[in-house]
Amino acid sequence: MSKLADFPYYRILVLGLAKSGTAAARALLQHGKQVRINDKSAKPEDRLIKELEDLGAEVFYGDHPLEALNNMEIVVKNPGISYDHPIVREAISKNIPVITEVELAYYLTESPIIGITGSNGKTTTTTLITKMIESSGIPVKVAGNIGIVATDVALSIDEDTTMVLELSSFQLQGTEKFRPNIAVLLNIYEAHLDYHKTFENYTAAKCNIFKNQTEEDYVVFNADDPIIMNEISHAKGRLVPFSVKNMTEDGAYISSGKIYFRGEEIIHVDDVVLVGNHNLENILAAVAAAKLRGAENEAIRNVLATFSGVKHRLQYVETIEGRKFYNDSKATNILATQKALASFTQPVILLAGGLDRGNEFTDLIPYLKNVKGMVLFGQTKGKLQQIAEQVHIPYILAENVEQAAEQAFHMSVEGDVILLSPACASWDQYRTFEERGDMFIQAVHRLM
């Protein structure tokens, strides 16, 4: 039985459909709620709109009239919709709660929940935890920011199935009661300030992951992150640290080249397939969360000895004439690209650029020591060109990532790494970072 009976709202505005809004609307309608939908691109003839209307939804077409809020008790908004949106601003001014569908998913299931957030490493850690639990014979489903709508999963699982949720700051800002049994906080670095406006707001959104926990719950946190260490004192759950620098008796750590959890040896670091020193943090976090959920050591070792990474995150693509191509399209901020560059000792041709969010790129400079050339594209190519000129790295300006792959190949020699790690979101030229990465992969295959 779901907890939606405890959801204290009846008249609900769903703002923005896409995947999450559609799933939320369906779930609410199926549970007898009065649902109004406002989506700027909705048309009366759309099959989806007709389906939702047949289920009882009222739809406001066209623009975003403030009248859509009339008599509504709560707004369920698409995570990508800004808090500057006129309906969202109006709702907040009238003290109408604004949530995302992750909050709704929490009410729809009695299943144990593991939530994972951080500025970087979320998808890798989420995937590792899911595989470790699954390999231990424990029923598990993954959802959230990883691309699978949490509401759909919550409706489809029983209370014995663990739900592993990758959670963005956009999703977490829209939570009120959301409470994971195990919260994982990987790192907090400056990101998405165009959305959150201040670093303090961004940090607060991330820390929502543990704000409703009790002493029955666990919070797995990065003891090497100064921002997290400053915030973790507010957590009520049982603290389980992880560290790549120090032994943490109550958590996960590395000692003498081996990974441990609470003093128990798990695996030798040399037996781990996943590349990149930054991934050791993700691995320690995953080990801690999986062990807390009951995963077996043998299953954890098998996963770490075989898992080489998720698509678009430092994904090895191909070797062509001695050049190794890596797709790190999911590096949508500077920190992610810093970590990617730190993963290689070979000479690197860096492919970077994308949506201009107002960032400067000087923080990349210390990580460009092995970069012998840059191929730049997108709205930020001019800013990145200035960086290349400042540190005297040869560069080429390209129209898009497909052209950049070809130009990087001609710029390289045998033994080089050709790395797509844009340090920017994709939305200036591509709908998603996945589309950008797929275009890169196709361009590499054409080079063969």
Q: How is the secondary structure organized here?
A:
Blueprint lengths: L10 E5 L2 H13 L3 E5 L8 H8 L3 E3 L13 E4 L8 H8 L4 E2 L1 H7 L5 E5 L4 H14 L4 E5 L5 H7 L5 E5 L2 H5 L8 E4 L7 H4 L2 H9 L10 E5 L3 H6 L6 E6 L8 E4 L2 E4 L2 E5 L9 H15 L4 H8 L10 E6 L2 E5 L6 H8 L6 E5 L18 E6 L4 H10 L4 E3 L3 H11 L5 E4 L12 H15 L1
Parallel strand pairs: 1-2, 1-4, 2-3, 4-5, 6-8, 6-9, 7-8, 9-10, 10-11, 11-12, 16-20, 17-18, 17-20, 18-19
Antiparallel strand pairs: 12-13, 13-14, 15-16
What does this structure look like?
The chain is of the alpha/beta class. The protein folds into 3 domains: 10-99, Rossmann fold; 103-304, 3-Layer(aba) Sandwich (UDP-N-acetylmuramoyl-L-alanine:D-glutamate ligase); 315-447, Protein-Tyrosine Phosphatase, Chain A (Alpha-Beta Complex). 33% of the residues lie in helices and 20% in strands. The protein is built from 16 helices and 20 strands. It has helices at 18-30, 47-54, 86-93, 101-107, 122-135, 150-156, 169-173, 193-196, 199-207, 226-231, 278-292, 297-304, 334-341, 381-390, 401-411, 433-447, and strands at 11-15, 34-38, 58-60, 74-77, 98-99, 113-117, 140-144, 162-166, 182-185, 218-222, 238-243, 252-255, 258-261, 264-268, 315-320, 323-327, 348-352, 371-376, 395-397, 417-420. Helix 1 packs parallel to helix 6 (150-156) and helix 5 packs parallel to helix 11. The model has no long low-confidence stretch (mean pLDDT 94). ATP binds at residues 118-124. Pathway: Cell wall biogenesis; peptidoglycan biosynthesis. It catalyses: UDP-N-acetyl-alpha-D-muramoyl-L-alanine + D-glutamate + ATP = UDP-N-acetyl-alpha-D-muramoyl-L-alanyl-D-glutamate + ADP + phosphate + H(+). Keywords: ATP-binding, Cell cycle, Cell division, Cell shape, Cell wall biogenesis/degradation, Cytoplasm, Ligase, Nucleotide-binding, Peptidoglycan synthesis. Residues 116-290 form the Mur ligase central domain.
